[in-house]
Amino acid sequence: MAVQFEVKVLEHCRVSPPPNSVPTTSLPLTFFDIPWLLCRPMQRILLYEFGCSTAQFVTDVLPQLKHSLSLALQLFFPLSGNLVCPPHPAKPHILYSDGDSVTFTAAECGGVFSDLLRGGLRDAKEIHPLVPPIPIPPSRILNESLLELTPLLALQVTLFPNMGICVGIQFNHVVADGMACTYFLKTWASLFQSRSGLSCIDEVLPVVDRGVIKDTDRIEDVLLNQWRGWGSPRWKDNAATVGLLEEKVRATFVLTRGDIEKLKNWVSGKCISAKHTKPVHISSFVVACAFTWVCVIKSQDKITNDSFGDEDLCHFSFVADCRNRKEISVPSTYFGNCLAICFVSVKRGLFRGEDSIALAADAIGRRVQELESGVLVGAEKWLLQWNEVSETGDLLTVAGSPRLALYETDFGWGRPRLVEMVQIDASGAMYLTEARNEKGGVEVGLARSRAQLEAFSSIFQLGKDQLQQC
């Protein structure tokens, strides 16, 4: 039976940067931002074991959470602003005005915290009350124009009295990618833990200036025109989103460091025996993605009795961080989007052979290697490619990355016991994060129908068992 985590709101408020700490600022969207105008909001929860009573939470923890959040928003002020979508031909942009704020909810849950940490398949809907919604205000008249304003961030901290705390976040991808949002979260956590104000921030401050993104090929104009040709994305239809969660279950799977090393060695051996040469690029990311992709395809085949044809294409999409790459010189502390969107396509029949993982790894590895020749090659086609592969209905995308090191987000309650990316319940993506309990391991999250996820689980475990025999 599914566990329902119903929450009681203790406080619902808005938190802004300190008054007069940030001037009114308009940030243009770069070509890295525009594709994410079509993306559903990102959702994460971080679960911490922490024995805290409701009284202690309200009198001690909550005020400091809000104060440290205000200071963090001073550094990451675009999160407090709004996405402004004016009528054509004006361009969408992010606008921060003094006093702009984010929604902050403090809540209490009477459920059993340890139920959130249990393994196995779980009803996808059970954790959604721990994620705050981003309120969508009505359109506003400004300078005689009707503007669509979209808030960019909402936060919720839910106390499980004397058991634990859940930090839930929902943010609009157009303001920042996963690396940038994690930078914000870790800064907030550091400020909360130190209780010493901004003086505890001894690292380089975030760079919010969109001018560091150079667009010599006018990619922005191309992508903007393509975006304008698309209708409103389906995720804006709340009824459609809720419908996607029905009958869904989710689970987290682990590839240990040993599994990853065996996969690398096995893939390399298969490539050498088949092509008499080493694979182009093999990494933990590549083999984890390849292994999961193959298991997803095989689970589809299992529950549909191989109804797909061998010539049908299976698509895989991932992103590559472009910070600190010589060709575009964007600093590692850049707060915004800086991701190249990559696609890989393989005929389904190739997934049905015994070398399917090696073939998938080779295809993904080759696409990763191509980035060395230019991360922006084909950038003007990102939206067109996305539309093309999405229409086939056989696209698997990757959310997150082990490089985000989400388990290092410490508010002073220790490392998170569990990190979940909640938006995959509706998007169908897989997510990757570093394994909590072992350096070099990887956690894989997935949400599917119960029948498919049960099939995936058995195929995933069988694959791991076979690795031990290599």
From TrEMBL:
The keyword Transferase applies. Coiled coil: none annotated. Keywords: Acyltransferase, Transferase. InterPro entries: CAT-like_dom_sf, Plant_metabolite_acyltrans. It holds the Pfam family Transferase. Signal peptide: none annotated. It comes from the Eukaryota. The keyword Acyltransferase applies. One of its GO terms (molecular function) is acyltransferase activity, transferring groups other than amino-acyl groups. This is Anthocyanin acyltransferase.
